[in-house]
Amino acid sequence: LYCCIGLGLPPDTSLENLNNFYDGLIRLAKKHNINIIGGDTNSSPLWVISITLIGTVQKNKIVRRSGAKPGEYIYITGNMGDSSAGLEILQKGKNNFRDTPLFKHLIRKHFYPPVKLKQAKAVSRIATSMIDSSDGLFSSIEQLCKASGAGAEIYADNIPVSKQLRAYSKNFTRAMDFALYGGEDYELVFTSGQQKIPAGQRVFRVGRITKTKGIRLYSGSGGKNKKELEIKKTGFEHFRNPAYQFSS
Question: Domains in the chain, please, with CATH?
Fold first, then answer.
């Protein structure tokens, strides 16, 4: 893998902050065997970081978003919702922060999301479509369905959440809001017609692809007693509600 870095920096950026940024970036690049090969630097009112990764893959092994087929299962590779709960803690500020293992766990999950390169390679052998969950689980499944011309059923009880998120949320509904709509967990979301998962891979079956378009959310695990739940549709959407607005 190769990496290009585009930076927009305010004129008053300190050399110490810039060195700290690159120290962390270089450390992660070495850990995952990524070569930093160049980029560009410009002036900006705020820090703007644009990272482009370049790699190669055999044409017949590319897993796109558009390969999901009705009847296939939807899998994810880990707990959902921790990152968005950590962000909420940070946004509430110091007055609401508690120096506890629970709060530290959720904040760490926001700052240090998982990197699942090896697992992506393993599950790609059985995956018909794949995406990461950076935009939220619901939004990610919706994108797979749109690209594949299909729909999906999601089973809320099958979505894995950590004990820390359960404790922070205090009830199942709020935990599911974080898990479904929060984003920034960077787990893998993929579809497969196979129930046999490659050895050593920890994955969770959270739904299935349907011929009928649209996404439906159900309580339970998809059995006869499943009950349809309301979909809030608050996942991240690119180019809507920008995080920053620059004054002229």
Answer: 2-54 (3.30.1330.10), 61-229 (3.90.650.10)
Contact 165, 106 (CB under 8 A): yes
Q: Which two tokens stand for residue 120?
A: 């992506």
Mean pLDDT of the chain: 92
Residue 50: C-alpha distances to residues 53, 68, 116, 130 (Å): 10, 30, 20, 23
- Record the tokens describing residue 79, joined without a space: 């707990």
The Cα 162–Cα 31 span in angstroms is: 26
| Contact (Cβ atoms closer than 8 angstroms) between residue 218 and residue 229 | yes
What are the CB-based long-range contacts (under 8 Å, 24+) for 105-109? 105/162, 105/164, 106/82, 106/164, 106/165, 106/168, 109/82, 109/83, 109/85, 109/185
Determine contact, residues 82/165, Cβ cutoff 8 Å: yes
Residue given tokens 């300190």 in the structure block: 14
Amino acid in the structure at residue 152 = A
Compute the distance between CA of residue 196 and CA of residue 189 in angstroms, rounded to an integer.
Answer: 16
Place of tokens 């990764």: 53
Q: Are 119 and 201 in contact (CB under 8 A)?
A: yes
pTM of whole model > 0.85?
Answer: yes
**Average pLDDT in the 223-241 region?**
71
C-alpha to C-alpha distance for 200 and 179, rounded to whole angstroms: 24
Q: In the prediction, which pLDDT does 166 show?
A: 97
- Checking if the pLDDT of 56 tops 60, the result is yes
User: 76 φ, ψ to 5°?
Assistant: -130, 160
Looking at residue 240, its pLDDT comes to: 57
Say how far apart CA 73 and CA 62 lie, in whole Å. Answer: 19
